Description:
This protein has one helix and 13 strands; from the N terminus they run αβββββββββββββ. The chain has one domain. It starts with a helix and ends with a strand. By secondary structure, the chain is mainly β. The strands form three sheets. Strands 3, 4, 5, 6, 7, 8, 9, 10 and 11 form a nine-stranded antiparallel sheet that branches. The protein has a two-stranded antiparallel sheet with strand order 1-2.
Amino acid sequence: xxxRTVLVVMVLSALTSAIAQETIFNVxxxxxxxxxxxxxxxxxxxxxxxxxxxxTPRVVAGIGHGIEIGMNLNGITSPGSSQATPTPTVKWKAxxxxxxxxxxxxxxxxxxxxxxxxxxxGNYVYAELTKTLKTQTRLTFGTFDFxxxxxxxxxxxxGQFGIEQPKQPMKSGILV
Length: 176
C-alpha cells in the first residue's frame, strides 16, 4: 500500500467516528446490529505487486436475538477477470456475558459464484470467543474453515485473531 493511501486512511479515520465495526480486517467482529439497524460497507484492497484491486460491497441487517444477516458481493477485481460471487452471511452471538466481558459467536458465509466459476458453491464457517477488558480493549480468538476452492485448492482451516481498541473521544486535542 502506498504511503499516500495510508495517510488518507489515517486522516479519514481520525475525522470520523464509527458506531459499529463488522470486521477487523477479515476477522468478523463481535459487534451485532440491533434489530432493524442496517449497515453498509465498501471494502477495497490494492495489491501493489500485482497492480490490481479487489472490491467488496456489503450490507448487513440486525434481525434481533443477537443475529444479523448480510449480503457481500465478493470477487470483483480490476484489472483482470472478476469472479462475481454473491455471498449471503449470518452471524449469531450465541452467548453475551455483558458484565463479565465474554462473548461467543458463530457465523457462516455461503459463496455462490456467478461468473468465471472455478467451483459451484463454497462455504466459510467460523466460531469465535471474545473478551472485552476493563479498558474496552477487545480480544478475539477463534477458528474457521473454508471449503475447497473458495480460497485454496483444498479445504482451508485455521485460527483467526483480532485486537480492537476503541478510539478515545477528544476535547480540545486532549484525550478524555
